[in-house]
Write a structure and sequence with these properties.
- The chain is mainly α.
- The protein has helices at 3-17, 27-39, 55-68, 89-101, 107-123, 134-140; strands spanning 41-43, 50-52.
- Strands 1-2 form a two-stranded antiparallel sheet.
- α1 crosses α3 (55-68) and α4 (89-101) crosses α5 (107-123).
- The protein is elongated, with a radius of gyration of 24 Å.
């Protein structure tokens, strides 16, 4: 998410919580405003679908704004951005090895081979991670591009 998109989302969040930030509100007025916000459907920036805000989300946004100001409402970039999260790196390396051994291997064949190897390790009593789903493995295939010889 680029900086402009992060700022748009933070501005949207601010607009949602703004009625709760007014100084001097009594408990009942605060509760009434919170109830009204929770009952309202909001359209997120760049989203065609209106959505309601969950109570805990609303509380989190107010707390972040109170603690950190406008910047607290901006989504934080993932600390693991670009890292392989869904597949154990060893399994991904093994998939690449299998593809390198026989470049014509299809994705379905790679998934089947990985599942068979996983089952063999389980049968031998080893503790293993689940083999990746086809769609997960497919998502990582673009990084396998090999230069033409």
């Amino acid at each position: 998410m680029d900086e402009d998109a992060r700022e748009k989302l933070a501005l949207h969040r601010f607009r949602v919580i703004a009625p709760l930030l007014e100084k001097g509100l009594g408990r009942q007025e605060m509760a009434d405003r919170r109830t009204e916000i929770l009952a309202t459907e909001f359209r997120l920036p760049d989203s065609p679908l209106p959505r309601r805000i969950a109570r805990r989300t609303l509380e989190r946004w107010v707390r972040r704004y109170t603690d950190h100001g406008f910047k607290g409402l901006m989504p934080q970039p993932r600390s693991d951005r670009g890292a392989c999260r869904a597949i154990d790196p060893k399994i991904l390396r093994r998939a690449v090895e299998l593809k390198d051994e026989v470049p014509e291997r299809t994705l379905d064949r790679l998934v089947a081979l990985l599942a068979r190897e996983d089952q063999e390790r389980r049968d031998a009593g080893e503790d293993t991670d689940e083999p990746p789903a086809r769609s997960t493995l497919h998502r990582h295939c673009s990084s396998w591009a090999r230069p033409a010889a």
